[in-house]
Specification:
This protein is mainly alpha-helical and about 500 residues long. The chain has 4 domains: about 5-85 and about 250-315, Rossmann fold (3-Layer(aba) Sandwich), CATH 3.40.50; about 85-245, HUPs (Rossmann fold, 3-Layer(aba) Sandwich), CATH 3.40.50.620; about 335-390, Glutamate-tRNA synthetase, class I, anticodon-binding domain 1 (Helicase, Ruva Protein, domain 3, Orthogonal Bundle); about 405-490, Arc Repressor Mutant, subunit A. About 45% of the residues lie in helices and about 10% in strands. It has helices at about 20-35, 50-65, 90-100, 110-125, 140-145, 195-205, 220-230, 265-270, 275-285, 300-305, 320-335, 335-350, 360-370, 380-385, 405-410, 415-425, 435-445, 450-465, 470-480, 480-490; strands at about 5-10, 35-40, 105, 155, 165, 170-175, 185, 210-215, 240-245, 250, 315. A hairpin with a 3-residue loop joins strand 5 and strand 6. It is elongated and about 105 Å long. Bound molecules: glutamic acid (GLU) and zinc ion.
């Protein structure tokens, strides 16, 4: 095992989104590539925004994606607990040590006072950060503030230096001292903030590499400062972690993909029936590449070659079409039994099956797979393609024809076609796709002189309920003679 320790540390607010998953994946891949440790930590110190539901969703999402972690919720580890809400005494203790050593101090300024002074600084064209007012209060001033009933926040005392680090993705990054003013680490209520708990846990959990989104770039200088302070008071033992900031993901109109965009919701992919393999494969391409133009690979293959140094600093473009195409490619690689297994939950949730499928259902499903596997891009599309094989069964909904298709295709002109098809099919003794095709061609194309589309369209809609379905003759074969004929009969007025 190498000493590489990386972490994925989401806050359980709202629904998991793809940006989060990419961060998790890159950290996971780096840990697996180096033989290091992948830590999963929950940053749930914001009582107002965090929810238990969101925490459960996060766990379920990572499990669904097939990602495993070496330390964290459910698996434990040497730095337990891994939910920050259960580590509050640790943060209180560190905050006290920082205060005692003078690395941090109490600030009594009210929000209004801060805003007034910021406003003034702006008017004088100065950088409007905290001005250090409470850095060196006298005992008398402190007594006065207290007597006024002011509740103080705790601020870090930032050294007057510029902050530079060698970003694993972006190369050298520098923040000038004036852009990193003394910042709040504990609220007046005593609640510790992200600015404290995140770097403290990175230190205590001995994190070596911080790989996270570019939106957190400006947190890094503060975290370096906090690291140095913790080192000075003997809390941090090792080296500063190395930082790498993953590029932004851009959505439509070259705007940053937002949590509100539907394609950013992880749930959407689950519900539409994307495979975890397909989604992870696509997300891995957002800022990284395999190296030899390969775009189709598993997360294990990715892990074999993954190197942070090859993450691209330029914004990545999110392309749902490409994501879907990669998913379709994954679907094509599944063996039939596996694909059946993955379709079943969708067939149940869509109500096509009222319970676990019977042996007979499974047999039909297995026969249908070769007809749909090449055509479906998502599991949900597959379900739509096969549902006509089961509707009308006991426990399944009635067979229904899409009313739009019915209006368009099952017209008065279609009636003679259906009548002819019914009588031709009635005479088929060995019910096979070949025999079905043969008699329909003879009856409708040769006999009635129709073009294939006009000939087969009405039969397709009558039998499958839709205009787009798996290949017609094979569909009829699987559906069976009795049900095929009765559906055609039902479409004849
Ligand atoms: N809890 C933070 C977030 O979800 C983690 C940021 C980080 O990786 O440092 O944004
Ligand atoms: Zn102050």
């Amino acid at each position: 095992m190498s000493n590489v320790r990386v972490r994925f540390c989401p806050s359980p607010t709202g629904n998991p989104h793809v940006g989060m998953v990419r961060t998790a994946l890159f950290n996971w891949a780096y840990a697996r590539h180096t033989g290091g440790t992948f830590i999963f930590r929950i940053e749930d110190t914001d009582i107002a925004r965090d929810s238990e539901q969101s925490y459960q969703d996060l766990l379920a999402s990572l499990r669904w994606l097939g990602m495993d972690w070496d330390e964290g919720p459910e698996v434990g580890g040497p730095h337990s607990p891994y939910r920050q809400s259960q580590r509050m005494d640790i943060y209180a203790d560190i905050a006290k040590k920082l205060l005692d050593s003078g690395k941090a101090y109490y600030c009594y300024c009210s929000p209004e006072e801060l805003e007034d002074r910021r406003e003034k600084a702006r008017a004088e064209s100065k950088t409007p950060g905290y001005d250090g007012m409470c850095r060196d209060l006298t005992p008398e001033q402190i007594t006065k503030h207290k007597s006024e009933g002011r509740a103080p926040v705790i601020r870090m005392r930032m050294p007057d230096t510029d902050w530079t680090w060698d970003d694993l993705v972006r190369g050298e990054v520098t923040f000038a001292a004036e852009h990193v003013p003394d910042y709040v680490i504990v609220r007046a209520t005593g609640e510790p903030l992200y600015t404290l708990v995140n770097p403290v846990d990175d230190v205590l959990m001995e994190v070596t590499h911080v790989l996270r989104g570019e939106d957190l770039l400006s947190s890094t200088p503060r975290q370096l400062a906090l690291y140095d302070a913790l080192k000075a008071i003997g809390v941090a033992k090792g080296e500063r972690p190395l930082y790498g900031h993953l590029p932004y993901v851009m959505g439509e109109g070259n705007k940053k993909l937002s949590k509100r965009d539907p394609e950013s919701s992880l749930l959407m992919y689950r519900e539409e029936g994307y495979l975890p393999e397909g989604l992870l494969n696509y997300l891995s391409l957002l800022g990284w590449s395999f190296g030899d133009d390969r775009e189709f690979f598993s997360k294990e293959e990715m892990a074999k070659v993954f190197d942070v140094a090859r993450v691209n600093a330029n914004p990545a473009r999110f392309d749902l079409k490409k994501c879907t195409a990669i998913n379709a490619e994954w679907i094509r690689t599944l063996d039939h039994a596996d694909l059946v297994k993955r379709l079943i939950p969708f067939l149940i949730s869509d109500g096509v099956f009222s319970q676990e499928p019977t042996e007979a259902d499974l047999e039909v499903l297995l026969k249908a797979i070769p007809l749909i596997q090449e055509r479906m891009e998502t599991l949900r599309q597959g379900v739509n393609m096969v549902s006509f094989l089961f509707t009308g069964n006991p426990g399944s909904p009635e067979f229904e024809i899409d009313p739009d298709e019915s209006a368009k295709v099952l017209t008065a002109d279609a009636q003679p076609v259906l009548i002819e098809a019914l009588s031709a099919l009635n005479g088929v003794s060995t019910w096979s796709a070949e025999a079905i095709e043969e008699v329909l061609r003879v009856a409708l194309i040769d006999g009635l002189g129709l073009k294939p589309k006009v000939a087969f369209g009405p039969v397709r809609v009558a039998v499958t309920g839709r205009r787009v379905s798996p290949p017609l003759f094979e569909s009829l074969e699987i559906l069976g003679k009795v049900r095929s004929l009765s559906r055609i009969q039902a479409a004849i007025i």
